[in-house]
Amino acid sequence: MRVVPVSAGVGAQENITSLPGAGGRTGFRGQGDNGGVSGTSRDRDAEGRARSARPRDGLGRPLPYGVEGVARQPEGVVRTAAQTLEEAQRLLDAGMPFHAHEVFEDAWKSGPAEERVLWRGLAQVAVGLTHAARGNTAGGARLLRRGAGHLADGPAVHGIDVAGVVAWAEELAERLNEPAAPVDPAAEAPRLLAAPGRR
To answer: CA dist 45 to 29, 66, 183, Å?
Structure first.
């Protein structure tokens, strides 16, 4: 990239790329020609935030433009704790832990300050399961342990089986230390709520 002093004037030389502006935009296209976003424009959501429009698979991995993917979770949704847990459990049971992690992130960002460590821990164990399902067992184990640590530090509220989820995360993280194929996220999905009658 060549940078020309301002004194050279606009259009003084062709084929010159300016430095990124305030928005971080350049005149370059992204790596390769994927038919997608150019360097001068980015996919944005309705509020103007950068958000890739590339389709995703059930584990949140980007797919090529034009391929049909799985519907993404809307971001910034404020749900009750019960709605969050119901939606996240549905997604976990469907083998979509990446999407469940996005639901937990919304609760983490919008919930009461004293519960944020709990929601953060749940988001981290969900993304740990995501990595394990993608075949990144080392990263999955690390995130499962980190999430379990946050859960252990958080409040036991909303009927969440904190001890059960911590035990599940630690047990799965331990199994991921052994050489193995990616895990089946639906088969490995944790139960978020304590069984009725259990304390």
So the answer is: 20, 18, 32
